[in-house]
Design a protein that fits this description.
The protein has about 240 residues and is mainly alpha-helical. The chain is built from 12 helices and no strands. The protein folds into 2 domains: about 100 residues, Alpha Horseshoe (Serine Threonine Protein Phosphatase 5, Tetratricopeptide repeat); about 100 residues, no CATH class. α4 runs parallel beside α6.
Length: about 240
């Protein structure tokens, strides 16, 4: 699958060089148009716009938009093409630029998506490192909701590595951060992620929640979802599929 994608990409490189000379559009406009086409499932046009944005940003020395175009290309190759090797390189190029810019929000997103890409490549240590950096940046910009989600992801990766001690530690951190949120029930993301990925012996509702209340000290008044057992079984099934792929 990789070779056709690379050849397809090379064909676009040639067409982009021709089109950008007659276009003259600003890189931010090209990135915006690319995301619009991306959202409309017009991947061919989105790819063209992102590559035009990248080259336009290089010509104008606009590092912010150049990093944005690399990030957008990483998203496209990851989400729409399942080409994670190419996606990884684009995210790393975006990060290299954004590390030198005062754009922690954007930098955190690039690290987050790089972590997802490493996870799909089966490189769990690299995924954890990327997620750790993303969580640090989310803390710096006070984005506690996303920080809690990323910490829960790290806990899940440690579960895949059979490192229960670190898994519990990160899940506990995730829940502690969620408790600080002010918008109602602070647990939906962290609790769903934590419970749906549990990889332990069969437990019924009461046994499962006793385990987590003992280990991570969930509050007694937590309103549990009715289909908790479905979430647990769904998580087990996803883990089995992931580990066998």
């Amino acid at each position: 699958m990789t070779k056709p994608l690379i050849l397809y990409d090379d064909m676009y490189d040639k067409s982009v060089i021709y089109m950008e000379d007659s276009c003259g559009a600003a890189p931010e406009d090209l990135n915006e148009k690319g995301m619009e086409h991306f959202g409309n499932e017009d991947i061919r046009t989105a790819l063209r716009n992102f590559k035009m944005a990248k080259n336009a940003a290089k010509r104008s020395s606009d590092d912010s938009e150049k990093a944005r175009s690399y990030h957008n290309l990483g998203l496209l190759y990851s989400i729409k093409k399942d080409n994670y090797f190419t996606s990884k390189e684009y995210f790393k190029q975006a990060i290299d630029i954004r590390e030198d810019l005062d754009e922690n929000t954007e930098l955190s997103e690039s690290y987050y998506h790089l972590g997802l890409t490493y996870e799909r490549l089966g490189k769990l240590e690299e995924a954890i490192d990327s997620f750790d950096r993303a969580a640090e940046l989310k803390e710096d910009i006070d984005d506690k909701g996303q920080m809690a989600k990323i910490l829960a992801y790290i806990g899940n990766l440690y579960q895949l590595k059979d490192n229960e001690e670190n898994a519990k530690r990160y899940h506990k951190q995730s829940i502690d951060v969620m408790k600080e949120l002010k918008d109602g029930n602070p647990f939906p993301i962290g609790l769903f992620t934590l419970i749906s990925n549990i990889n332990k012996e069969e437990l019924d509702h009461e046994e499962l929640m006793d385990y987590y209340k003992d280990e991570v000290h969930l509050p007694e008044e937590l309103d549990l979802p009715i289909n908790l057992d479905l979430l647990v079984n769904k998580g087990r099934a996803e883990n089995r599929v992931y580990q066998s792929s």
